[in-house]
Amino acid sequence: MASKSNRTSSLAKSTGEIFTRKWPRLFFIVAALQAIICIAFESYTFAQFQDGLRDMTDADWGTNKDDGEAQLKTIPTFLGLLMLGFIYDIVLVWDALRMKNTIQIIGLCIANLAFLVYSALQIDQIREAIAILIGFNAFNNLNIWSEVQGELIAIPCIISLVSVILSFISWKLYQEFAWDILKHIGADYRMKKRFLHYQVYIALLKFDFFFFVGFTIQFLVVVGGKTTTEFILTAVAIPVTIIILLCAAWFTRREWKFGMVIVMILYLGGLTYFIYKLARIYDPYEGQFYAPVRKSLTAFAVLTIILIILTIINGMVCMFNFGAGLKQHLLSPRQEIDKDQASYSMHDVKQPQLPSRMTID
Hints:
By secondary structure, this protein is mostly helical. The protein has helices spanning about 1-20, 20-50, 65-100, 100-135, 145-185, 190-225, 230-255, 255-280, 295-320, 325-330, 340-345. It is globular and about 65 Å long.
């Protein structure tokens, strides 16, 4: 009970520090404003799409029923996924600032560029979907594209500006958090390097989750499975992935090598899966089923493959660091020390031996 109370108190304290310090507060506010504005534009686009849509329950799709129904799902999926991305981004921003994880903060700046790419792809894919649906006489309002075009173009422009601002603030946070890491880990260069690899690995796990889930949602909603079994297996993969990523973080923190080996094998399985899916997207026969979301699925698949490779590499580095003393730092509560105390913890700096003096009487 006391342990739970201590964790709650620590969580409240670390969250409060975000808003009492200049650069963490600015980083959070800028990221939150970006999320609020972009979600508002996405919501407006979704509302216009739904209001302008006819009742297509008994629509005459002709020979293109599958394509027409897929296009109906494409626009809500794109909009919903990007909104989910911004919400998840705010959670990661809060987590990174609370934990003073500079690596995750840098990762968030890179993830913002991924949002930029996705929002730019979204414009063309939504325009194409609307044009196809107009051909099926699916809209009461034929000017639907002109009404949402401005908002969709504004989103990548906003993300571009915010990416520049966040990059500048992240540099300031890097300088500010360096002292906090020194207080927790000490000035031992090798230990700080091990802690750096640990931070990279944990941050990669968090980004792996979003891009895997993003790919899977698009596949399930728009493409679907060619068989019921494929659909079920793909849906089950989401909770299984969450469990694997949570176990990966726990095994690393506890330095359990056997568990990490199992996780590495599962990573290789995931890597194989995404390479297979990427090949299917551009297969001459299978590619037709992925046409409505080909560009976005390709972007998600490529990013996920890169992330999995980086996760495997960093996971192996973390395994090699097991037993070197980092576990004690990770599991022990943070201790506040002053600069004078920290100056004596530089284990890698060997003090020169003073020569003994002989006294001549």
